[in-house]
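Hi P.,

Sorry for the delay on this. The queue was packed all week, but I finally got your sequence through. Input first:
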Amino acid sequence: MDVLFINRCLTGGGSEKAMVLIANYLARKGKRVGMILLVKDEASYVLDPSIQVIECFCPIEGNKLLWHFKRILTIRETLKKVDAGHIVSFMWDINVNVILASMGLHKRVICSERCDPRNEKRPFINFAIKYILPFADYTIFQTPLVQSYYPKKVQRKSEVIPNSIGNMPSVIKYEERKKIIVAIGRLTEQKNFELLIETFKDFYDVHQEYKLVIYGDGELRNNLETLVSSLNLDANVELPGYVSNVTEKIAEAQMYVNSSNYEGISNAMLEALAMGIPCVCTNCPVGGAAMVIKDHKNGILINVGEKQELLEAMLEVAENEEFAKALSENATKIRIDYSVEKIGAQWENAIFKVQ
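Then the structure:
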């Protein structure tokens, strides 16, 4: 086996999608690809049939520290059985587990770090970044800003590779788009959908022909549903949950909004841009939106948490058709720079580069 990917599962998350796109790319290129999954869950993403999936489940039970130790041992035993010289792990906690599990096994470990350590509230993460991540052979970051947060000894063995865009539906003409504003993401504090819903209330007072649809699930669902009801928006704000064909669902939307407090490079944002949907995004750490969006050229950037800025941006898209058309046309150009072929080639070089 040429390369073995490791992640929790294949259910709905951004890291899982990024991993699947790269794994499928390498499989199409003729590489022998495997994938270890650590959590038993229903798959949302389709793998190339040549990819070998290896289940390495270790259910959470008992003392959490002992559970982590058990999971590391389980991963280590699996790595011993699989003949793979290159290991690619995703997410900081799994990276830590894999680094420790692979000690002395003479395998090249590449970690995909996707968190913003300044916003992670786990006390162990700073210790892991300082003392464990440097043992990785190489690290892939999403943006230069998040790369700069890490120790120099990590940065020296790293590079920045953004997310890629998979196959996208055809771009719909602006005139044929429906009066729908869409957002996508887990219903968590990070995504700040409360701000979006409150802003939509003011927007709706002016434009009652619009509907807001937020795709995703999470622990704040009840809070957000209560907020929607308190603002008398039950008929105009929908929370349909997670859907596997979300790109098809949003293809006809007239606007995409990302209200996150912090974010890597949002897959949903990239896909919305690639489909020509005018995008309004917070210019949040760790700089993913600013890497892709040139303000008022192919999208609009606003400051984090600024309700008035968000409202003005949404109104500008809704009320200036020529401007919205220009955003749409310029946005689709990212299909080239963020294609799977271009990003996949960068990953291939990073994984297999000669040391």
